[in-house]
Amino acid sequence: MDPIYKLLIVKIHLLLLILLLPFFLFSQKTETYYDYFWKPCSAENARYFSLVEKTDSGWFRKDYFLSSRTLQMQGLYEDENCKTSNGFFKFYYPSGSPSSIRRFIHGKWEGVGISYYSNGMILDSGLFHEGNVVDKRLRWHRNGYMSDSVTRINDSTEVEIAWFDDGAVANAGYLVNGKQNAKWKYYHHNGQLSSLETYANGKLTVAEYFDENGRPLADTSGVNKEAAFKGGEQAWKKYLERKLHWPPGLQFSRTAAVTVGIDFTVDENGKIIDAEVSVPFHPDFDNIALSIIKSSPAWIPATAHNRKVKAYRRQPVTFEQSD
């Protein structure tokens, strides 16, 4: 072969290597596995995995539900550790439907942000600048009724009005720098005042409570309580353990325990509603966990500001494989 031709071939190879080297460097992806609690783990114990790729604009990250390998989130970060959001972010439910769409600049919300319920109904919508609401932020209940409205009055003050999911007014008051301030009024479903509360920089200073007939409440011990399973957390744990069973015909060589996440709501009557799989693993496990939650006996409903209210909970359901 002619020496000049050989030298030309070598130069072309070197040129291609120089041109392709940045592509190979910047297209490298870092893969990490995470467990139910989003802690790094081995692949066999994972519920999520993420791919992080260095781009000219930052570090682009995609998180996946491991069971279905469908997207849970995708977005751009300005740092390699993916701590500071800096771009558009999309979140998804296990079904693949969108959960929320947001934009961040240096870690702060910017522009329009929208969230959705798993049934496709809009949950939250607002316009933001440097993390603060601009003009209005609106939220809705799952059934489409307006949930609450936050209207910005000036740089520091906002007014909030909220409604129950039947359209009745639930509460109203002022926010200063994002914290409750001055007098807030809360209402029973029948329109009677349930509590009159005074706040200073987000801290409750004075509170008066009234029953549904407008009479002052003597016993205020139950005005704010979380939803509870009858018998308490230990009884709830025993109920889950008693109902759980490993799916027949499934055996794993390494995995000794499997955790599925179920989201559900305890309504004002203590009934379980809107139960759905939020952290899936395998259809057999998912269906068993979901059925157990849906079949739960009635709970003691939550109270807030002296009214029965809906309570939302994410429950890890853990299956243990017997020898």
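The record above closes out task 2.4. Task 2.5 opens with a second protein, given below.
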Amino acid sequence: MSDSLRLLYAGTPQFAVPALEALSRSRHRVVAVLTRPDKPAGRGRQVSESAVKAAARRLGIPVAQPATLRDPEAVAALAAHAADALVVAAYGLLLPAPVLALPRHGCINIHASLLPRWRGAAPIQRALQAGDAESGISIMRMEQTLDTGPVYLRKVLRIAPAETAASLHDRLALLGAGAILEVMDAIAAGTAIAEPQQGPATYAARIEKAEARIDWSQAAVRIERQVRAFNPWPIAETAWGEQTLRVWAAHPEHTPHHARPGTVLSCGPAGIVVACGEGALALDVVQLASRRPLRVREFLNAHDLHGATLGPAH
């Protein structure tokens, strides 16, 4: 049996939980967890702990929450663990050079794309927006530059036709958990090989709330991808008179029209069909502010959109 590894684990959101759980069940030992400091969340703005902190406490693993890793005291605290590797998954803090150099096997990142495709903060959403046919997980040895390091392992995942950011996130999190175990075992056995990234790189910029506004002059297929990419956040939205209508699910419709983009062409159980710059989009699940999301059939029982125009006033 190959030697086991002493690991530090750095992560914050739910995406990082399956890999932490998998490593805690493995022959490797997670000696401590790093996560972002607790912060206010939700409508009540009550201070809440991260998903990774909750998982670590449940697993009985010590937790540290430094505000920065540029403090020499924070670096010294990490060094005291004498870890063989630091596994990182959506941590949210940059690792400075002294931290990257601490573990003898370096810092290993679980990244939710097939690098060098979609380096950066929002690879899941950008892959859906772009209409990519596949996504995946890359296990990468970290460098000081963003997501440029050599890759130990890639796992490919086909993107389903109705895939949302929520569903792809969950599938990739599980895929990443299995992939990091493979790489840790290979590193322990001395058989791991990290190869330089090949091919053109693309950048996955952080999602901004303003991107949620639907531009009906775009093609229906592009808007439908926007709807899926921004579910569960920030949720695609459009103006309906003085109200904001959020769109949780939609599908393109082959409905010929010569209407101005944003015009509601028809309303029925099959959807609220809206004219787009190219084609039409049927809204399947919608939501008004402070209300719950509703299937269109239920929404139309209380609201009439016949002849309405969605989007900013012209």
